[in-house]
Amino acid sequence: MKKLLCFSIISLIIVSQATAHDFGTALSIATYNIPYGADVAGMGNADAAAWGWSSNNPAMTAFERKDTPVRGVGSIVYGIADFKKGPKLSYGSVSGVVKTRYGFFQVNYNYLGSGSHSTKVGYDTGFNPSKAIELFWANKIKENLFCPGDEFYAGLEIGTSLSKLTFSLDNKNLLKSSSRGNYGAMGFLYKPNGKINVGGYYLRSWERNRERDLIYRSSETSSSTSNKLKIGVGFQILPLTYAEIDYQLLNIAGSKENQVFAGVEQYVVKNALALYAGWANHSPTAGIGIYFPKGGFNLAYMENPFRELEPHFGKARIIEASIYFYF
User: Fold this and answer.
1) For residue 114, what are the CA distances in angstroms to 18, 166, 190, 253, 263?
2) CA neighbours within 13 Å on the CB side: how many for 263?
3) Rounded CA gap, 211 and 62, in Å?
4) 299, β-bridge pairs
5) How far is CA 76 from CA 179, 225, 324, in A?
6) Could you tell me if 309 and 26 are in contact, meaning their C-beta atoms sit under 8 angstroms apart?
7) Contacts of 66 (CB under 8 A, 6+ apart)
8) DSSP assignment, residue 38?
9) Domain count of the fold of the chain
10) Residue 144 sits in a domain of what CATH number?
11) Collapsing DSSP states into helix, strand and coil, what is residue 223?
12) From CA 90, how far away is CA 144, in angstroms rounded?
């Protein structure tokens, strides 16, 4: 009986550690695909070439308002990912951009957190709030680069993050997993004319992971790197209609994902009311935008964009809202 109990505990730890590794990878893939704002969320998270939109492309920090001079931009984003057999993950960000003679500088504070919920193998997974701080720089590099009237922008990003997970069974903690990451990104945007945008960005992160076995009171550390490459093309098809398609390659600790994002923006009232529809990695999206001379509000819905987490928590539905203002 003692041997059987010991074997059961060892098996439990092995399964728990495997679950932690698989779940950690799936969660990383999901967090890499969290939209920066509800405008791009509604448009299928196609943000590589979305000039003037909320975007994870560092080059988009270099906003330009030729009609109304502005000094900067502030924005707030909040979203909820509701899993059918899992928790409600809440995430958000606060950011500010300032225009200077040396370029555009941006600061972001991001968080992601939730209560705990059981995974598919019966373990309870607790989420400590994950936090990240990011710094951006971008500027217009060149005009008339290849043809008269074209524009080329470039941007850089650095950031650091911290996340923690706890695996439990019958209210007893079995395993704690934590990860500290540092990352950097570079991006570009090329506008050959007023109707076409070509953009892309590359992000590389370095993570140091630690898993603590709370039964045997042992710990194990490891390091990993992740890469994200996203490129896209946007078209102003009609004066009130914009469309974009992006291709993304993810390499998360050796797990590779090829993903496609696409979407359409259709203004109902010029510069005031727009509707959005998209396709984010095999998942439909929709949204609405209400705009003012110095700001705007967006609301978006995404149906199961985190397929990597579906084996653990089931399908997810995301509702995301964002507001921004110029000053």
Assistant:
1) 22, 12, 39, 24, 29
2) 32
3) 40
4) 288, 321
5) 26, 29, 7
6) yes
7) none
8) H
9) 1
10) 2.40.160.60
11) strand
12) 44
- Tokens representing 138 are 């971008």
Query: According to DSSP H, which parts of 33-91 are helical?
Result: 38-42
> Which residue bears the tokens 């076409």?
196
Q: How far apart are the first and last CA of the chain?
A: 71
Tokens representing 230 are 């996203």
CA distances, 193 to each of 61, 151, 216, 259 (Å) = 19, 8, 63, 28
Closest by CA to 123, choosing from 165, 180, 179, is 165
CA angle 126, 131, 135 (to 5 degrees): 160
- By residue range, what is the domain housing residue 271? 2-326
To 5 degrees, how large is the angle CA 114–CA 85–CA 161? Answer: 30
| Cβ-Cβ contacts under 8 Å for 254 (sequence gap 6 or more) | none
Owner of token pair 């019958």: 170
What residue type is assigned to position 117 of the chain? H
Structure tokens at 299: 């609301």
Ordered per-residue pLDDT tens for the chain, 327 residues: 333 333 333 333 333 444 555 666 666 677 778 888 999 999 999 999 998 889 999 999 987 766 667 789 999 999 998 888 777 778 899 999 999 999 999 999 998 777 656 555 555 666 666 788 999 999 999 999 999 999 999 999 999 988 777 766 666 666 677 778 889 999 999 999 989 999 999 999 888 877 777 667 777 787 878 899 999 999 999 999 999 999 999 887 677 889 999 999 999 999 999 999 999 988 999 999 999 988 999 999 999 887 777 777 788 899 999 999 998
The H or E element containing residue 61 is: none
